[in-house]
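User: structure tokens for this one?
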Amino acid sequence: VWLALHKAVLARRIPNGDLDRLDESSLLLISSIIIGGRVGYFVLNQPQTLLTWEGWQELPKVWHGGMAFFGAVAMLFCAEYFYCKKFKLGFWHGADRIMWVFAFALGFGRIANFINGELYGIPTNQHWGVMFPNVLPQDLINGENVFRHPVQLYSALSHWLLGFFLIYLLRRKPRTKFDRCPGFTCFWFLGGYGLLRFITDCWRQESIYI
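Assistant:
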């Protein structure tokens, strides 16, 4: 993210952007993702833990796992938007330059989910099915573990395809009128992410908490 924004600042593609503000906003970005992701995870999946002091102590323990995309996006958007507004920076101009990075990062996050054996898919008889060792008791079939869709890999591939598509939009020439509108890759990222999640989650074993 920092390299992408650094290149955009030097090319004067971000109004009022400078390298000092870049360093500050990058630090704010990293902390926003971690804090928002952790808080969002507990709000969506384990809200009861936030009712105790021990639960709040669990928030900074990122090595225990648990991040929510929606919480990270909400915290990131609010923090960076008001930061850019305060210093009169081009928020949407900068966001356009880093959406493809988020798409690739989400793909690598899904690879981590696959390695950890979490967010697994529904049962399948296909030859590419995977036996995940840490299946929750309520997801067992007649008390037995079965082969499941490696939906994390499906999601990773879809996120990387979205990332390449966003790079294409940034670089294609001649650029359309819409491509010159600040925030256009944000539109494609959020819309594309939602559409791809809608497709790949058809094979995901959902544990509904809220």
